[in-house]
Amino acid sequence: MTSAAPILQLTGIGKQFPGVTALDDVDLRVLPGEVHALMGENGAGKSTLIKVLTGVHPADSGTILLDSREVTFGSPLDAQQAGISTVYQEVNLCPNLSVAENVLIGREPRRFGRIQWKAMRRRAAERLAELDLDLDVTAPLSQYSLAIQQMVAIARALEVKARVLVLDEPTSSLDTGEVEQLFRVMRTLKEQGVAILFVSHFLDQVYEIADRMTILRNGRREGDYPTGELSQVELIAKMIGRDLAELERLEERPPARTTGTLLQADGLGRTGGIEPFSLTIREGEVVGLAGLLGSGRTEVARLLFGADHATSGSVTLDGEPVSLRTPQIAMTHKIAFCPEDRKADGLIPDLTVRENVVLALQARRGWTRPIPREQQAQLVDRYIKALKISPANPEQLVRNLSGGNQQKVLLARWLILEPRLLILDEPTRGIDVGAKAEIQRLVAELSDGGMAVLFISAELEEVLRLSHKVGVLRDRRLIAELPNDDTLTTEVLMQTIASGGRS
Amino acid sequence: MNRRLLWPAVVLALLLLLNLFFTPGFLSIEVKDGHFYGSLIDILRFGAPLVLVSLGMTLVIATGGIDLSVGSVVAISGALACLAISEGTGVFAAVALAVAVALVLGAFNGFLVAVVGIQPIVATLILMVAGRGLAQLITDGQIITVTDASFKVIGGGYLFMLPFGILLALVVLAATVFLTRRLALGLLIESVGGNAEASRLAGLRSRGILITVYAFAALCAGIAGVMVASNVSSADGNNAGLWIELDAILAVVIGGTLLTGGRFSLGGTVLGALVIQTLTTTIYSIGVPPETTLLFKALVVAAVCLLQSAAFRSKVFPQRERPAARPAAKDTTEVAR
Amino acid sequence: MTALTGAVVPRKYLPVLVTAGLFLAMFIAGGTRYEGFFSAQVVLNVFIDNAFLLVVAVGMTFVILTGGIDLSVGSMVALATMVAAVLLNAGWPPVAVIVVVLLIGAGLGLGMGCMIHFFEIQPFIATLAGMFLARGLCYTIGTDSIPITDPTFTAAAQTQVPLGGELWISPSVLIAVAVVGIAAYVLHQTRFGRTVYATGGNEQSARLMGLPVARTKLGVYTISGFCSALGGLLLAFYMLSGYGLHAVGLELDAIAAVVIGGTLLTGGSGFLIGTVLGVLILGLIQTVISFQGTLSSWWTKIFVGLLLGAFILLQRVISGRKK
């Protein structure tokens, strides 16, 4: 490792969005020829930092030094021209163009305005050869796998003589072999002195490839460390460790009054989503799922609700085999699901609270059997009161509600169906502390009433506080299933995640 | 009524006032031969087919789609009804046949959109092109004239002192309101158009809803086709319903339903259709050459669409729009207003 | 990704090959059925009768390749014939008339491009407004057909360019072929052309790749307006009149020709040669129907509609289901 001056130095970066501090006094130093990992959970500020760095958003405060010179970028193009190139998770290339064009379009060799195709193909092939890639550069990009497309994106980035390469979750959709190929390319680049800023949720990969890492949490920098000097447990603790000023523990959770197995998944899995897993959920039981972002926790939920198709395994409900192919089928089995991204996947923002609440019930009845107005009013009124939805106006548009109240509307939609299994994917994310406590209390009450709950949260304390049993996920595998007894602590959970269940 | 109906209502009122200024007796309605007569009645009567087509179009647009084929369906249904009557079929059976065929054609559109997964504009383009030829095939390129008196009633007759066409349009309007607002079709349409993925995860079967909606749009067009044919006692496969799909889309847009789908307003659509019809009537009555109707329409389309475009408002009226155009902040910050 | 890729024929040429095969099959079938069909002049006549459509369809190809659509082309053609006729009758020199008409077309196209790009109005609606506007302008200029007697225009209409043997074409065909050639060069050999494909492939990506998407989108609508005006001039040569009811529904023919030629309506994929074949197929259908004698003209529309449906389904199969 060269101990040269940093090629890229961000100092005191701050970024405000209305009402929210996304970045607060963040520093980042990247050395030439190193792979530098940027770590953090949802909302830690990783993507905002990258956007500031690549000219998508201007920073409110702080300076960016590139090669010790201060720079400001007005657009991604500015940043590219200065030598900072970004490759995103969803490859931002044109799949319909040839590989050569994707490497060179916008900078293609021309004579009198006419593209020199031969020279272009040669140059593209050279660039790719530098990455040990031998492709048919005349073939359309869409013929190649995502991994290859990502390499082509990297080749394009190098074509502009990038000195800093930002790889934003490049490995999320790659299989093991493809990841290896990407890492080979990254190592080659390192040797050429390119600095790589690497974002990934996969701890193994970070430990394999990164030289140093900077950890963000809640928009602040937790520190930067050489990879070798920070154990995985320490890393996880810094990313998700104890954070809230010790909310007082809910009174001891009584053992679940479990009457029997409700749902049993056997070897359920989906290629590219989650490795086959087995999980038992009993009536009245809260099963927590703990794991980092991208560990497969959402995928488990989506498979159990039929939002995605499983490619392997089976599910039994009350001992009867069922095939959860669609949400409708899951609903007839009284399974409910509040998705993680409530605006994109949950609510219809232009409809009212009342309409959003009765939607699932109405969908189940079909449009020919409307729910009578009085019954709608009663139902909605009851849940507005029970969940303390504010403002208590059923005709308010959902888009005008705060995050916490939107979450409650989504909960109300499913509660009126009286589900037996309620799947909650990050129900408390991004909502204020008061609403958070209310939702936690509600989950406890529901399970006391006999409902089974699958509870997903990035906050380990919350998972521990509510669950009777915790499933631990890492790198798209369910690696452990731990009963929540006195011995289970956040430290144990972090240890389990860090060890990858190999201990 | 809500604020969205305000602008189309204002435009309609202004157009009527303009007419009153040029033709003082414009708003008067008199009774002749036991029927109501007057310019207002004429606007309603001649606007009835457009109202019908626009109602169906509203539901299609609310799902985020569009139906270009309604004009061809108007022609096909009119041609079928006239052909059947001229071959000796009873009026009722002929009309039933025409409307049923329209329904099937609409279901075909819905199938292409919902099951095969073709963009609505492309899927309905097929029937738009081929349907026009089918209509001419049915009429054998001629204009089929029918003299049946009871058929004439649908588009030209009277009931309860009012033109039958107006009553028919009112019945279809009432039926549409019933289906969408009394029954729950409207909620499910707005849900699919507002957020398709969230609707799927709430257990909606959007396929069935889409097919229903395209079939309904064609049904409305079919009724309109019978009405048009009855009004002139003949079927013209070439010209019946020509460009009515564009007027209908325009009526829906003027009525405040966004082309991106979601919330729809049937009242707004009716107002929009009446604005278009009144515009046509106005141009005739105030002596502007009728040829310029299209120019006015172009200006109205451009104005309405520009006003609906968020990009236009934020560029042209940056000050006033700022509070609303504030980017959706993180959840934590938004407090109920 | 299916295993089909990398087969004998690259997948992107498949639609064009299907179209070419269809054209050949129709031509051979026509030749075996009808006396006198199997001659080069029949094909040349298809070109002569559809030169204006070919030019319009070239402009439409640019627009559709970016993922847009232009409904205004038929009205623009009519407006071009109208303006040309009126100005010629007013005694303007033909060259000036041609320049003015082309400028009007390009200008209106640019205007629609601005509405689409800067104000984010859907192409469908913006060009619908353009369609009304152009047709309305026609009727405002005059409701009757205006004959054109200018010697330059009549010469263009009546000249026969000999091709050796008994074969001949009209000057309009030469212009149309030149337009096709230039357009093909632009699409495949210039940065602008490649950016058209990139924009249609993935507009967001094209923007992040630093390509001038805005300029490109304005460019294609300007080109389409220009091509419509030029197509209008060719129609004026052909008809020797200006009339507000010329070219009614031409936009559908142009769109159909482009789609039958294998260009994806979602943008990013297709070739100009496909559009040429699409226009030829439309023309050949008319020729077959006129040779048949017993088939009425509306069969054209039905056939075109069926072909359109078949090709859209084919594209769906080729591009696979995207969710």
TrEMBL record, chain A:
Family annotation (SMART domains): AAA
GO CC term (a single one): plasma membrane
GO molecular function: ATP binding; ATP hydrolysis activity
Alphabetical list of InterPro entries matching this protein: AAA+_ATPase (IPR003593), ABC_carbohydrate_import_ATPase (IPR050107), ABC_transporter-like_ATP-bd (IPR003439), ABC_transporter-like_CS (IPR017871), P-loop_NTPase (IPR027417)
Superkingdom, taxonomy of origin: Bacteria
Domain ABC transporter: 8-243, 256-500
Localization per record: Cell membrane
Keyword annotations of the record: ATP-binding, Cell membrane, Membrane, Nucleotide-binding, Repeat, Translocase, Transport
Record-linked SUPFAM superfamilies: P-loop containing nucleoside triphosphate hydrolases
Membrane topology: Peripheral membrane protein
Keyword ATP-binding: yes
Name used for this protein in its record: Sugar ABC transporter ATP-binding protein
From TrEMBL, chain B:
Subcellular location per the Swiss-Prot or TrEMBL entry: Cell membrane
GO cellular component: plasma membrane
InterPro entries in the record: ABC_transp_permease
Segments crossing the lipid bilayer: 43-61, 68-86, 92-114, 121-138, 158-179, 209-228, 240-259, 266-288, 294-312
Pfam families: BPD_transp_2 (PF02653)
Keywords, sorted A to Z: Cell membrane, Membrane, Transmembrane, Transmembrane helix
Cell division as UniProt keyword: no
Magnesium keyword on record: no
Protein name: ABC transporter permease
Membrane topology field: Multi-pass membrane protein
Top-rank lineage group of the source organism: Bacteria
Molecular functions (GO terms): transmembrane transporter activity
Coiled coil stretches, renumbered: none
UniProtKB/TrEMBL annotation, chain C:
Subcellular location(s) of the protein: Cell membrane
GO CC, any one term: plasma membrane
Keywords: Cell membrane, Membrane, Transmembrane, Transmembrane helix
Membrane-related topology note: Multi-pass membrane protein
GO molecular-function terms, A-Z: transmembrane transporter activity
Membrane-spanning ranges: 12-30, 42-65, 71-88, 95-119, 168-187, 218-239, 272-292, 298-318
A Pfam family: BPD_transp_2
InterPro entries assigned to the protein according to its UniProt record, in alphabetical order: ABC_transp_permease
Protein name as annotated: Sugar ABC transporter permease YjfF
Organism (species): Kribbella antibiotica
